[in-house]
Every structure is written in C-alpha cells, then in structure tokens.
Amino acid sequence: MDRIFTVEEAKSLLPKVLEHVRELVTLRADLAELSYDLKQSGLSAIGGIPESKAFEARMDEILSWFAAEGMEIKGIAPVLIDFPAVLEDGVSVRLCWMEGEEELAWYHRSELGFSGRRPLLDDHAQSHA
C-alpha cells in the first residue's frame, strides 16, 4: 500500500529532503554542463562519458530514495515533490514542495495536480493516515 503522510511526518522529512535535493541540483547542473561540453567539443573540464554515467547513476539512487520513502517526484528541473496525504475532511491531497521553498507550505487535491496548488493553512495541518 502506498504511504500516506501526515503534515507533521512530511515536515519532519524536509531536512533530509533538502539534503538530497541539494545533491540532486548539483548533479543536474554538472550533467547538463558536461553533456553540453561533450556535444560541442568532445571535451569538458568536468569529465567525460564515465563521469556522465556516474552522475546519472547517482541521480537514479537519489530519486530511488524519494520513492522508497513514499514521496512522488513530479519534476527534477525544478525539483517538485508530492507527499500523498488525506486531510481531516477525507479529501485525498498531495502535500507539495518545490525547489527553492524553505518549508512545506502547499498542497493540492490529488486529482488536480500543480494547477490546484493552495497554501497549507493551520486548519489543514490535522491530516491523518
């Protein structure tokens, strides 16, 4: 069964999420630069094909960590992460965090996606499993 987070559980994971996201963002930028350099000149100060494969493998490991914890990765540029949850009124939602945000402060109904994103107010903080 898929994991259902409370707001508190999702927020408690945020420090580890931020740690993994920082590494993912660095890898994403390194891989983009390396790929561009290799296509343009066949050379890069960052490395070559072995480094590219290593960056991709590490990115896959990080993305697998998110999935193993029950989070849903919706994008990597920017990084967008959803935490499945059910609010007190029984509505299925995704607690939503996006790269650059300092805290988990948004949600959207599961069927609406990002376009339905709303601020997570104190009265929504009583989600349950």
Task: Determine the strand fraction and express it as a percent band.
Answer: 15-25%
Helix/strand order, N-terminal first? HHEEEEE
Q: Class by helix and strand content?
A: alpha+beta
Number of helical stretches of at least 4 residues:
2
Whole-number mean pLDDT: 93
InterPro entries: DUF2203
Protein name: DUF2203 family protein
Organism: Planotetraspora silvatica
Task: Write a structural description.
With 129 residues, this protein is of the alpha+beta class. The chain has one domain. It is built from two helices and five strands, in the order H-H-E-E-E-E-E. It has helices at 7-41, 49-68, and strands at residues 72-76, 79-86, 92-98, 106-109, 118-119. Strands 1-2-3-4-5 form a five-stranded antiparallel beta sheet, with helices on one face. Helix 1 packs antiparallel against helix 2. Residues 125-129 have low confidence and may be disordered.
